[in-house]
Here is the input.
Amino acid sequence: MSLSGLEIFKKLPKTNCKKCGFPTCLAFAMQLAAGKVELEKCPDVSEEAKSELSEASQPPILKVEVGSGDQAFTVGEENVLFRHERTFINPNAFAVTIKDDMSKQDIEKMIKQAESLEYERVGQVLKIEGICIKNASGDGQKFKEAVETVADLTQKPLILVCEDPSVMEALAVSLKDRKPLLHAATVETVDQFIEIAKKTGCPVAVKGKDFDAVAQITEKMRAQKIKNLVIDIGQRDLKQDFFNQIALRSAAIKKKNRLFGYPTIVFADELAQDPLKETLAASIFVAKYASIITLSNASPQNIYPLMVFRQNIYTDPRQPMQAEEKVYAFGNPDANSPIMITTNFSLTYFIISGEIENSKIPSWLMVMNVEGQSVLTAWAAGKFIPELIAQYIKKSGIEEKTENRELIIPGYVAQLQGELEDELDGKWKVVVGPREAGEVPKFLKEYAAK
Here is the structure.
């Protein structure tokens, strides 16, 4: 169990130096006990205290990394039950399932589809993070061949599901540089998996039908200094698995029970036969609280909604999603192409950029940083005003990109027209654009026809 705030306080310097950002050492200790700050925030803590407090300074849900290199994904490190309290840290990972009794052609087809399923949305890349290979045949040799085939086809992190520790050990040794997740250590096989984990350093999933079984396994592995764990609990029942996810998260965060403080894996592909029902089940565990979710297919119509939902859940509700401040080019604009300006509120940017593309008129779009606020909100807050817009135009480099000196502003802030022209020293003409995004294509076509 983790230490209380007072127990942590006793091991701190007690200088109240405020270097950590808190007024007293006691305040810092309380935040540390709650898992809301890291021990490194205290620059004067002794090495002895660091060693003693290392457990207390870890987040309630430990971090686990699966895979290696650029495609590795990280899960865990969560501190809260609800995203409005602080925000969730590491988005859950989606993994497509391959069964070892599938033909090589079907395996290749599934991998190709998973590799190609990639979208860019609001400046983030949405994709399938991993590949789960299951020993559906029960044949160890067949499983090895399937894993080797998948490993040759993709560099995505692997999740290996096999009940035979000897088969798993051989694969873990051969693939240890790729750090696959090994599923799963049970009450009966925990000793073998301890040795495999020590030998290879691979993360291990622990599987138990109930909380007592999970606690028994994690306690034994923790005693051997193995904490790179993922929990699989339950009997593939939607209602029970949903309850288990909430209970695990609550035990780790509210009760500070380290035996349950690990990321979790849910096999949505085993919860429903119908792909749409599977997607619905998976969406439940995106919010509550699976770290890894396996899916039976990589069909875009099933996966894309999950990716968007996950993106919404794992964004900070206290900060608007923002587009990058820069001058965007659409359709190879030249020195005389239209120039529009808007704010970096992501929804505004994506709606306007979509309408510009629909117009087929090569154009420049200037996106100004207003901390992610919409046009009217930024104007009301004094962040999208003539003085600041003029400063942005001068530093943006747009004057080097084009000879055009007409700036199209959103129709909702038409009142900025005259003052903005003054701020730009009369070198620019300010044109009032449409109020609604849907009017942009017509406006640009008429503007280009002049």
Remarks:
- The chain has three domains: 5-57, 64-313, 326-448.
- DSSP finds 17 helices and 17 strands in the chain.
- The domain at 64-313 is CATH 3.20.20.20 (TIM Barrel).
